[in-house]
Specification:
By secondary structure, the chain is mostly helical. The protein is 66% helix and 0% strand.
């Protein structure tokens, strides 16, 4: 069972026992949707459920808890989102300057503010990602 996520482990053990998600859910007093989320590594069983789940599946709670961790729902964290935003804003500001300039609606002050905002974001991104 090594190198499996907790969801993969629950799914494999449940199927080995010939149980449906609904049957396992009923034994644990949770919904079958909860079991489905566990098996897809979208959510994890709560700490009070793990011992009973382990007992039903015929493994130790420690074995369940030692499963490979998976980033829930592929979420990469706020830092990842911040990096995307800090890279997108300069592009957006540059496009805004070009488009408003082509349309003849760009005044110097607005252009400098937009370009300054973009450059500030580039600077923050570079400083944030210095290793």
């Amino acid at each position: 069972m090594a190198n499996k996520s907790i969801g993969e482990l629950i799914s494999t053990l449940r199927k080995e026992k010939g149980m449906t998600q609904k049957e396992l859910a009923d034994m644990l007093n949770v919904t079958d949707k909860a079991v489905s989320k566990w098996e897809r590594d979208v959510a994890c069983p709560d700490t009070l459920t793990i011992p009973k789940l382990a007992d039903i599946l015929g493994v130790s709670a420690e074995e369940l808890l030692n499963a490979k961790t998976v980033s829930v729902n592929g979420h990469k964290g706020a830092g990842y989102l911040t990096n995307i935003i800090l890279r997108a804003i300069p592009v957006a500001m540059g496009v805004a300057v070009v488009v408003t300039s082509i349309l003849g609606k760009l005044d110097i002050k607005s252009g400098l503010v937009m370009l300054g905002t973009g450059l500030a974001c580039v600077g923050v991104f570079l400083l944030k990602n210095v290793k």
